[in-house]
Design brief:
Class_I_gatase-like, seven-stranded mixed beta sheet, Peptidase_S51, Rossmann fold, 6 helices, serine protease, globular, four-stranded mixed beta sheet
C-alpha cells in the first residue's frame, strides 16, 4: 500500500496543505486525477474547491466523490484518493452510508495511493477510538478502514506546563485507551505525518511523533524514524490490562 497520513492540513500562518505541499505533490502521481472525500465537513462543494485551489496549480485534477451519482464509482477513474479532515464521526458515518468504507479499503489494498489528513488519517486506523472529535453523529460502528493495524492520534498535543487548565491531557486519554486495549497509538503532532510504502513506514515532517504502547513509557520518534515494525502489530481491542 501507499499511504500518506498527515496530522493536519492547515498550519498556523500558512495556506491549505502548504506546509506539506512538496511531500503531497511528490506522493501523488504526476498529473494525478484525485478523488477527494469531503464528508468530514458539512459544505462539500466549498471544501472540494479549497482542495482544488491548493493542488490544481501543481497539475493535479481534483473531483469530489459527492459529485458522482455513486460516490464509490469515483475511485475507478482516480489515480489516488484523499480523505480530508473535519469531524471523524460524521466522516465515518458517511463512508458507511455511501459504500465508500469498503470501496476505499479495497482500492487502497489493490494499490490506489491513499492520502489522509486529520479525520482522514483517523480513517486509516482500525477504529475511531483514539480520535479527538466529539461524536456529533453515531456511525453504525467505530470500525474504520484498517489500512494500518495500529491506532493514530492526529493533532497530538503536549500539555502546557504554564496552563491553569486541570482537565485531562491527551497523554492521559491515550493511557486510558491502553488500559482497555492492547494496541499501539502513534501521536502525530501538528506538522508531522506518517509515510507508508508497502512494508515500510516512517515518521516524517517538521516535528517528532510520540508512540504510546501498553506497559511502557511514551517514546519520542524524530522525523526519519523507521516505524515499520508497527505494520506487524496484532491489535487486541477490549483487552483490559490485568
Amino acid at each position: 500500500m501507499h499511504l500518506l497520513l498527515l496530522s493536519n492540513s492547515t498550519q498556523y500562518g500558512r495556506g491549505y496543505l502548504e506546509h506539506a505541499l512538496d511531500t503531497v505533490t511528490g506522493f501523488l502521481p504526476a498529473g494525478a486525477r484525485l478523488a477527494f472525500v469531503p464528508y468530514a465537513l458539512a459544505d462539500h462543494d466549498t471544501y472540494t474547491a479549497r482542495v482544488r485551489g491548493a493542488l490544481e496549480p501543481a497539475g493535479i485534477t481534483v473531483r469530489g466523490v459527492h459529485e458522482h451519482a455513486e460516490p464509490a464509482a469515483a475511485l475507478k477513474d482516480a489515480d489516488a484518493v484523499f480523505i480530508g479532515g473535519g469531524n471523524s464521526f460524521r466522516l465515518l458515518s458517511a463512508l458507511y452510508r455511501t459504500g465508500l468504507r469498503e470501496a476505499v479499503a479495497d482500492a487502497v489494498r489493490a494499490g490506489l495511493p491513499y492520502m489522509g489528513a486529520s479525520a482522514g488519517t483517523n480513517m486509516a486506523a482500525p477504529t475511531l477510538r483514539t480520535t479527538n472529535d466529539m461524536p456529533i453523529v453515531q456511525p453504525p460502528s467505530f470500525a474504520a478502514l484498517g489500512l494500518v493495524p495500529f491506532q493514530i492520534n492526529p493533532h497530538y498535543l503536549d500539555p502546557d506546563p504554564a496552563s491553569t487548565h486541570k482537565g485531562e491531557t491527551r497523554e492521559e486519554r491515550l493511557t486510558e485507551f491502553l488500559e482497555e486495549n492492547d494496541v499501539p497509538v502513534l501521536g502525530l503532532r501538528e506538522g508531522s505525518w506518517l509515510r507508508v510504502e508497502d512494508e515500510a513506514a516512517h515518521v516524517e515532517g517538521a516535528r517528532p511523533a510520540r508512540l504510546f504502547t501498553r506497559g511502557a513509557e511514551p517514546r519520542e520518534l524524530p522525523a526519519g524514524t523507521d516505524v515499520s515494525h508497527l505494520l506487524r502489530t496484532e491489535p487486541r481491542f477490549d483487552a483490559p490490562a490485568r
